Prior knowledge:
By secondary structure, this protein is an alpha+beta fold. The protein is built from one helix and three strands, in the order βββα. It has one helix spanning 39-59, and strands at residues 14-18, 21-25, 33-36. The chain has a domain at 14-59. Strand 2 (21-25) and strand 3 form a beta hairpin. The radius of gyration is 17 Å and the shape is flat. This is Type II toxin-antitoxin system HicB family antitoxin. Pfam families: HicB_lk_antitox.
Amino acid sequence: MKKRRETIYQYETVFEPTDGVYMVTVPKLPGLVTQGDNLRDARGMAKDAIRCYLEAILKDREFKSRDATSKRERIRVAV
Length: 79
């Protein structure tokens, strides 16, 4: 059986206390939102959500490393 190679990914994760739970978002992974009853639970939920998000993207072969802070575009302007 062929052993799958693992890659470690790191993402800034935001834990926001709200209405008795911690809401979790990951700015570089649009649409990823989860929550936990406490900070420890929220961290576990975040790891699971990030793993599922990345596995889905990799499975679809659409994953590419993105830097949300920069983007290149060519814009034409008439003067």
